[in-house]
Amino acid sequence: MANHKSALKRVRSSERKRQRNRVVRSRARTEIRKALTHIENGDLEEARAATQAAVRTLDKAAGKGILHKNNTSRRKSRLMQQLAQLEAQQNQS
Fold first, then answer.
1. What pLDDT does 1 receive?
2. Does position 32 have pLDDT exceeding 90, yes or no?
3. Residue 77: CB atoms within 10 Å
4. DSSP for the chain, written as a single string
5. Cβ neighbours of residue 38 under 8 Å, at least 6 residues apart?
6. What is the pLDDT of residue 57?
7. Which pLDDT score, from 0 to 100, does residue 93 have?
8. Above 80 in pLDDT, residue 53?
9. Which of 17, 32, 40, 58 has the most C-beta neighbours closer than 10 Å?
């Protein structure tokens, strides 16, 4: 455990930031999971809306510095690829 006054303060502030970041990270994961579920079920309109919400959430997390911008970009890219595959399947049918 920390002994210096400044180190104790750092522990407290780090814990506050960890709690705040955890909420944002969890929200992003939830939105991605929702989008993937809709894509797997083949609900095109719901998948589009959920993907858009997931992208928005990821962008917010990257803007706050909670997720790295390349990590966010990779996740968005993978989501969009899966959505595009679903749209291609729907158009072929």
1. 74
2. yes
3. 10
4. ---SHHHHHHHHHHHHHHHHHHHHHHHHHHHHHHHHHHHHHT-HHHHHHHHHHHHHHHHHHHHTTSS-HHHHHHHHHHHHHHHHHHHHHHHH-
5. 46, 47, 50, 51
6. 98
7. 72
8. yes
9. 58
- Residue 77: what are its φ and ψ, rounded to 5°? -60, -45
- Residue 9: what pLDDT? 95
Q: Which two tokens stand for residue 52?
A: 């858009």
* pLDDT in the model for residue 2: 80
Residue 62 backbone phi and psi in degrees, to 5: -70, -40
Domain boundaries, the chain: 5-92
